[in-house]
Amino acid sequence: MAGRQAKFNQHVLVDTTPLPADIPPVTEIGASSAPLLSASFFIGARCRAYNDDFMQCKTEKPGRAELDCLQEGRRVTRCAKSVVEDINKHCLEEFRLHWTCLDKNNQQLWQCRPAEWKLNKCVFDNLKLEKTIPGAPPNETPVHLRKHQKYAHRGP
Amino acid sequence: MPQDLPPSGGYGPVQYKRNLPARGFRPAVMLFGVAGIVTYGFWTLGKGIREHNELAREKLWSRIHLIPLLTAEEDRDLARRHYADLARERKLLGSETSAYNSDRYVRPTFAIAPNSVTK
């Protein structure tokens, strides 16, 4: 399929044949963009190795990656799924607060810092995952921890 | 008839200079004041740009952490459709014939719509 799913005016005509039985099934992540954005740095913190493995596989097998990297892809999805499930288990309230805020604010991270600080603290206390931005200047406060956000419409 | 003559002692001085009050600060003070305001503005602008760069870095890395996940999901979907296509072809033609002279995976340009509504 090119780009988007096949859709006709009258009916939804999608090929629903499942994967062959010799390929193990995996539960998809099943989260929309705002929760994924909210959890992205924790996914990165826990699943960095799996992600790098998958991307290396994609690079090393040009043209065959869609079919040959399914195993690495399943690992990536399982790891990300575990992060989202853990956050749901321990920090559901803070998580919801943050991603609804992101949804309401055009998914601009700097509009939702108070909710993000609460989520980061809860996730660090329970899951020991910390948000770090790679490549940030070492002598400055990381941008997500600054008390005054220059571009926020209201609040810090 | 006596002629008109200047008054005794001569005329008073003629005012040919403008008599406007010199308002505001001295020019040098104005110059340095404006320079200070502009410097402060550019300093603030620089800080804003730095913060903007950091926010862009944050957004970029949040996406980088998600890309393998999203790619994996899409790849599974493509593989599922590909294998379904191959199975359909085997069932209909009894053989697998690739249109391409390579074993690379090619994203199909056209999708085969099923006879009946499947969903």
From TrEMBL, chain A:
Region called Disordered, residue ranges: 135-156
One cellular component term from this protein's GO annotations in UniProt: mitochondrial inner membrane
Functional summary from the UniProt entry: Accessory subunit of the mitochondrial membrane respiratory chain NADH dehydrogenase (Complex I), that is believed not to be involved in catalysis. Complex I functions in the transfer of electrons from NADH to the respiratory chain. The immediate electron acceptor for the enzyme is believed to be ubiquinone.
Main location: mitochondrion
Compositional bias of kind Basic residues: 144-156
PROSITE patterns: CHCH
Taxonomy, superkingdom: Eukaryota
Lineage: Eukaryota, Fungi, Dikarya, Ascomycota, Pezizomycotina
Residue ranges annotated for the CHCH domain, each copy included: 91-124
Family listed: Belongs to the complex I NDUFA8 subunit family.
Organism name: Amylocarpus encephaloides
Coiled-coil regions listed in the entry: none
Protein name according to UniProt: NADH-ubiquinone oxidoreductase
Automatic annotation (TrEMBL), chain B:
Function: Complex I functions in the transfer of electrons from NADH to the respiratory chain. Accessory subunit of the mitochondrial membrane respiratory chain NADH dehydrogenase (Complex I), that is believed not to be involved in catalysis.
InterPro entries: GRIM-19
Protein name: NADH dehydrogenase [ubiquinone] 1 alpha subcomplex subunit 13
Family to which this protein belongs: Belongs to the complex I NDUFA13 subunit family.
Presence of keyword Signal: no
GO cellular component terms given for this protein: mitochondrial inner membrane; respiratory chain complex I
Organism (species): Amylocarpus encephaloides
Topology class, membrane: Single-pass membrane protein
Subcellular location: Mitochondrion inner membrane
